[in-house]
């Protein structure tokens, strides 16, 4: 379910678990969003992430983030690491970006990121 848009993910989980009679996609999505803050606020960085980002920034190597997260999820995930993310000039959040029709693993988000980076 990683990389899916929230509604796609909710529909997949509901169908996979066979709970269509108990919860709608809208209800599941609403509950997910309510609990999002507590789930994401203090997420750790992946091992080596800070080192590589700082190295790439120091050597002026182009970087961008293409995340399956939506705006709210990304803000929560990245809040405690804002100084690191400020080193990356472009972020595309495919979870709620209107230009990205299909989330990961489809290439839409990556193609949109490349397109925008070329404008920079």
UniProtKB/TrEMBL annotation:
GO molecular function: phosphatase activity
InterPro entries tied to this protein: HAD-like_sf, HAD_sf, PGP-like_dom2
Signal peptide extent: none
Domain of life: Eukaryota
Pfam families: Hydrolase
Protein name: Hydrolase
Species whose genome carries this gene: Pristionchus mayeri
């Amino acid at each position: 379910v990683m990389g899916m848009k929230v509604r796609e993910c909710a529909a997949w989980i509901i169908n996979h678990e066979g709970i269509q009679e108990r919860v709608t996609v809208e209800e599941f999505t609403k509950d997910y969003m309510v609990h999002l803050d507590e789930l994401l606020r203090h997420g750790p960085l992946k091992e080596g992430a800070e080192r590589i980002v700082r190295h790439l920034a120091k050597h002026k190597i182009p970087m961008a983030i293409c995340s399956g997260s939506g705006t709210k999820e990304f803000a929560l995930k990245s809040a405690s690491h804002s100084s690191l993310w400020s080193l990356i000039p472009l972020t595309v959040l495919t979870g709620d970006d209107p230009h990205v029709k299909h989330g990961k693993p489809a290439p839409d988000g990556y193609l949109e990121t490349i397109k925008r980076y070329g404008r920079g």
